[in-house]
Write a structure and sequence with these properties.
318 residues; 2 domains; Spore Coat Polysaccharide Biosynthesis Protein SpsA, Chain A; 5-stranded mixed β-sheet; alpha/beta
Length: 318
Amino acid sequence: MSEVPRVSVIVAAFNGEAFVGEALASLRAQTVREFEAIVVDDGSTDGTAAIVAKFASADPRFRMIRQANGGTQAARNAALAVARGGWVGLLDQDDVWLPGKLEAQIALADADPRANLLFTNYRTWDGTSTTGTRYTRPSKFPEGDVAVGLARGCLFQASTVMVPRALALSFGGFDPELRNAGDWDLWLRIAERGIYARGSLTPLVLYREWGGNESLNHMRTAEESVRVLEKALGRPQGARLRAACVRSLRRARAQVELARARSRLDDPTFVRAKLHAAFAADRTPKHLLQWLAVAWPSTLGGRRTAAIVHAKLVRKFR
């Protein structure tokens, strides 16, 4: 490919032979052709590389980099280092872009020069049918200056996002120590400098939910949230954003304790201790309710009842 592509699409792939072909096929089906796809085979031991090689041999827009396993963020950084597009987009190996995804986001970029993060709505998907939509109310759709919202949590699923390549490089790319939350960490760093998000309310990505999703590892996700926010508070920030990060860090530390409790719900003594720690970290009514539900099991009908109640409360309030 000699022409400079409008968008560089980064795909970090590790032992993804079950799904990566479907992800790459969804790129090939885009209504906009001005892109390059950089697939980093991150030390796969299955047939991932062979699948990617077939795409690369048939379509010059696709190329593969192979490296020893270093994790998702290291793979993304390897692709970012050789990307040529003005924008970079992420596509996880198990997700799918609908055909108009790139076209819609390029239109947003052309229409609003303020935008430095483009995203789309998405549907959750089990590989056969969709099971939900992320944003169902236009009033909750996160556009514009979303810095404070990002301090509360990651507003954007990785496979929906595009950012200017130069901007991503100026921050040093993704933190390789953050296996799950590296994308949120980068969006938050962009927000500290000044963010303006534009998105498509129409869902244009299928986010596959299955047993291998790293984001479904509740303990690691909770622990990485704490690390992201601790990093953020170690950098200069405006007062409003800093206050939001402080509040979010309290909640994140409580969520770590709740995740630990969840891992041993058959041990009510351990659960009570972790819920007490969660309440100490973030003294909010919902955590007080969780703690009381297990701290006084006799009023609830016994130790096993307390554990069951806790499990339901964690699902309700997480």
